[in-house]
Design a protein that fits this description.
heterodimer, A: 384 residues, alpha/beta, Peroxisomal Thiolase, Chain A, domain 1, 2 domains, ten-stranded mixed β-sheet, two-stranded antiparallel ribbon, 14 strands, 32% helix, globular, B: 235 residues, mainly alpha, Heme Oxygenase, Chain A, 11 helices
């Protein structure tokens, strides 16, 4: 066994396609189902607090990028930021909720798009939490000495899923002929983008790098039914033998089993479970709230942030609000890509100094999961 | 002995022991909620598969538990020493607020197609027996502060779960809303109970040993409550 090698994030990259789209433009941009305005729209936007977002599909349905291209652009930017040539890359881990193709995996499409290699790849398909799964893959590869340069990318092209063609002709109609809330809300929340972190066995030659202290990913899927899913009707999503591929794509679409959906009642229990896992980490001493200088939480809605804060204040788990950093309002919720887009923006917005500690928290409603990544800022010599 | 004045309305300005016990109770709650979610009864309710017979059986068991609720809170109050006069007073008020609640459950049961005689004469299942015995055992101790851990679990059911359960049951069984008033009513009222709860905690002499006892009581109560549900609908 080789000794455990410290791992440094020596570069970050973010890519948001096209111009920002405002709240007033968004419904005409993604398209109106049956040509009608959605009733939940304004309420959803108030709840999530998003003001602008980006889409890789134009209003007329023409794509500007594939999902793999969004990831590839983020990887190129991360390599530039780390000042490393792409052909140095040895391990490429890719995360997404849904790749461009059903088969093969996202990492293969991303690798093809980048054109460097040959190299080792790993695909992680989940929801937001897939970002940290890919990060852990790269982290382990460098830590064990199997790779000296690794990259974890995450990208989403959610807006494909929100076009009217995903709903018209499907049994997803609720009261007064509108799309059911379970499917409609996400249309107003998720948007497109890519993010990446570059990991290496040495810090960047210039500026600040982030030493990865640890990555913990905790799944609670043994406790919950799917909370955010696609591929099954709401009523029988717990029974995988009724999922989309058994009835075939046409019948599944018509039954309303293809659209991405969210169960809001279950979400409340899952939010409490996420906070419970966090408090457990505080209780065990794994996380020391007072020691965190920069906190990055991927939350999907501003209102959720407020709910969580009151709970944390009562339980000694609160990290001073001045230390929170977030750009949800302007870049939208880009799912798995969010955490890296946020980390990339942190360096532009704040002067991160050697010795400071960062904590990234990525909850995933999917089937109940929450991941944490703690980092310490270091200078070019690796010192804090 | 501290005067009543100094003990009343304690400062909730988040002392470290109060934060510690709230943190550990929040963790105990999520452990409990996770177990609840995997009980066959709650799984069926969440999946829209509950039968009318199962809902009726649920109300029957709930009634036997709720009847006892006000009684064990009263017993606990009677065991609180004069040093904690204000806490005793709060518990007595709490018992008074709750001690007619089971009438509502009986009415719900009748609205759900059952008869008054059936729900009034129903026996506790073995989970309810264990839960009840545990509550009286705790309540019978001198200054039974740890029992607040049990109240945390029971109040949490009211504020976090009852309303959703009630709404889900009437929707999937096509029942009128007055067949789930107890569950829905609790969801709407227990937010105030939670504030009262923190006030009670702040009145207690919180040290490490008591915090451990409170959290253990919460965990045992949660486990026995889940057992009660497991005995209504078996896997």
């Amino acid at each position: 066994m080789r000794p455990i090698q410290p791992v440094y994030i020596s570069g970050t990259g973010a890519f948001l396609p096209g111009a920002p789209i405002s709240n007033d433009q968004m419904e005409d941009h993604i398209g109106r189902v049956h040509g009608r305005a959605a009733t939940v729209g304004r309420r959803a936007l108030r709840w999530n607090g998003i003001e602008t977002r980006h889409y890789a599909v134009a209003a007329d349905g023409t794509p500007s990028h594939s999902n793999a291209e969004l990831a590839a652009e983020a990887v190129r930017r991360a390599a530039d930021s780390a000042a490393v040539a792409l052909n140095q890359l040895q391990h490429l881990a890719a995360a997404t909720t849904q790749g461009d193709l059903l088969v093969p995996g996202h990492a293969a499409q991303l690798h093809a798009e980048l054109g460097c290699g040959p190299l080792e790849i790993a695909s992680f398909q989940s929801v937001c939490g897939s970002a940290l799964m890919a990060a852990k893959s790269g982290f382990q590869a460098v830590r064990t000495g199997e790779a000296r340069q690794a990259c974890a990318a995450a990208s989403e092209l959610s807006s494909r899923w929100f076009r009217p063609s995903f709903f018209e002709g499907a049994d997803l109609t609720g009261r007064k002929g509108h799309v059911v809330l379970e499917a409609e809300y996400l249309r107003w929340t998720l948007s497109d983008g890519g993010g990446a972190i570059w990991m290496a066995d040495t810090p960047a030659r210039n500026g600040v790098s982030l030493r990865i202290d640890w990555i913990d990913i905790i799944s609670l899927a043994h406790q919950f039914d799917p909370c955010m899913w696609a591929g099954a009707r709401k009523a029988d999503r717990h029974d995988l033998k009724q999922s989309w591929s058994f009835s075939g794509p046409k019948a599944a679409f018509e039954a309303g089993a293809i659209a991405l959906q969210q169960d809001f009642t279950l979400l409340k229990a899952i939010i409490r479970a996420w906070v419970g896992v966090y408090l457990q980490k505080v209780d065990e001493g794994r996380i020391d709230p007072a020691s965190i200088d920069h906190l990055l939480v991927h939350y999907s809605a501003q209102s959720l942030r407020e709910e969580i804060i009151s709970l944390l204040e009562n339980t000694g788990g609160m990290i001073d609000e001045a230390r929170w950093f977030n750009n949800l309002k302007t870049v939208g919720n880009t799912g798995s890509a969010s955490i890296w887009i946020m980390l990339d923006a942190l360096f532009g917005a704040r002067d991160v100094k050697p010795g400071e500690r960062l904590l990234a928290i990525v909850p995933e409603s999917g089937r109940g999961l929450v991941g944490f990544m703690q980092m310490t800022a270091v200078g070019p010599d690796g010192d804090v | 002995m501290a005067s009543v004045e100094t003990l009343s309305r304690p400062d909730l300005n988040q002392s470290a022991p109060l934060q510690t016990v709230m943190r550990k109770l929040a963790i105990a709650w999520t452990e409990f909620e996770a177990r609840l979610e995997t009980t066959p009864l709650v799984r069926k309710l969440n999946r829209g598969q509950l039968t009318l017979e199962e809902y009726q059986a649920f109300l029957c068991n709930l009634r036997q538990q709720v009847v006892e609720g006000a009684c064990w809170i009263s017993r606990a109050a009677s065991n609180i020493s004069e040093d904690y006069f204000e806490l005793r007073s709060t518990l007595m008020q709490h018992a008074h607020t709750e001690h007619r609640d089971y009438h509502m459950l009986e009415a719900d049961y009748v609205a759900a197609g059952g008869t008054l005689e059936t729900i009034q004469s129903a026996k506790k299942n073995i989970g309810s027996e264990a839960l009840s015995a545990w509550m009286y055992h705790q309540a019978s101790k001198p200054n039974p502060f740890a029992l607040i851990g049990a109240m945390w679990i029971i109040e949490g059911l009211g504020s976090q779960k009852a309303r959703d359960w009630g709404k889900a049951a009437i929707k999937q069984l096509n029942l009128p809303e007055d067949a789930a008033r107890f569950l829905i009513y609790h969801g709407e009222n227990d937010v105030e109970h939670m504030e009262e709860f923190q006030q009670m905690l702040a009145m207690m002499p919180l040290d490490d040993a008591l915090i451990e006892d409170i959290v253990t009581c919460a965990r045992v109560t949660g486990r026995l409550y889940a057992l009660q549900l497991e005995e209504i609908v078996h896997a």
